[in-house]
Amino acid sequence: MWNPDVYLAFSDHRGRPFFDLLARVGADAPRRVADLGCGPGNLTVTLAQRWPGAVIEAVDSSPEMVEAARARGLDAAVGEVGSWRPRPDTDVVVTNAVLQWVPGHLELMVRWAGELPAGAWIAMQVPGNFDAPSHRAVREVAGRPDFAAALAGVHIRGGEAVQAPVRYAEALTAAGCTVDAWETTYVHELHGEDPVLDWITGTALTEIETALPGELWQRYRAEIRPLLAEAYPAGSDGRTFFPFRRIFVVARVGS
């Protein structure tokens, strides 16, 4: 289950890649802007501010996130990104930190390129840190005997969850798009007793928390905590620096 409050605990850090992504979208007056995986809507509302004449279409698979987005005045709907189809007037499609959850999403983006009108924009950003110490720790602890059985049905993502920027560029260029693809490693300054654990609890650990009964979930947290503290030690001033690689793609659909 996605918890909007936990997710928003790092809203400033999580929001920065969104704005870096949208800065490369050159749409002037789109008719419809679709935000797929809108989350609690705190970033979606900025799309309406940028393009006040556009219909803002907000979709998320989490009812809790959709409820939070609706509380912000958005006409959000529960839906799956993998089955979404663009309406004829869709001129911008945004997916921010979403497609890593969708198997086969590269082929999905190519399909969108074939369904969107000429000149439309596809803008996506995904985490590229699945081989980072944080995610290696997630997988290591999940594989321990105390947790393996309860997590047998949970797909814990590794590096295969996303592609390299060049792979997205190749596929979308072949689909007739003009593509801008890049990667950035942000170094987030975090504070608190277990800041990296708090961060991944709102994202990478959501499915694990859902799958583990309460006591077992607390044991999982207790066992991953020292691994994260060793990989991301806090300084004497209490600051923890958390490198986070992200992958960006902006594609403009050809004629």
What does this structure look like?
This protein is an alpha/beta fold and 255 residues long. The protein has one domain (4-252): Vaccinia Virus protein VP39 (Rossmann fold, 3-Layer(aba) Sandwich), CATH 3.40.50. Helices cover 38% and strands 21% of the residues. It is built from 11 helices and 7 strands. It has helices spanning 4-7, 11-22, 44-50, 63-71, 105-115, 133-142, 145-148, 165-174, 195-201, 206-211, 214-231; strands at residues 32-36, 55-60, 76-78, 90-96, 121-127, 178-190, 240-252. The protein has a 7-stranded mixed β-sheet, sandwiched between helices.
Fold topology:
Blueprint: H1 4-7, H2 11-22, E1 32-36, H3 44-50, E2 55-60, H4 63-71, E3 76-78, E4 90-96, H5 105-115, E5 121-127, H6 133-142, H7 145-148, H8 165-174, E6 178-190, H9 195-201, H10 206-211, H11 214-231, E7 240-252
Parallel strand pairs: 1-2, 1-4, 2-3, 4-5
Antiparallel strand pairs: 5-7, 6-7
Helix pairs in contact: 6-11
Keywords:
globular, 7 strands, single chain, disordered N terminus
- CATH homology superfamily name: Vaccinia Virus protein VP39
Helix content: 25-40%
Strand % is 15-25%
Give the CA-CA distance, first to last residue: 41 Å
- How does the major sheet shape up? 7 strands, mixed
Elements, N to C (H/E) = HHEHEHEEHEHHHEHHHE
Main sheet: strand order: 3-2-1-4-5-7-6
**From the helix content, strand content and strand pairing, which structural class follows?**
alpha/beta
Question: What is the overall number of helices?
Answer: 11
Number of separate domains: 1
CATH class categorisation: Alpha Beta
Number of strands: 7
Average pLDDT for all residues: 93
Low-confidence segments: 1-10
Q: What is the 3D shape?
A: globular
CATH architecture: 3-Layer(aba) Sandwich
Rounded to an integer, what's the Rg over CA atoms?
19 Å
CATH topology group: Rossmann fold
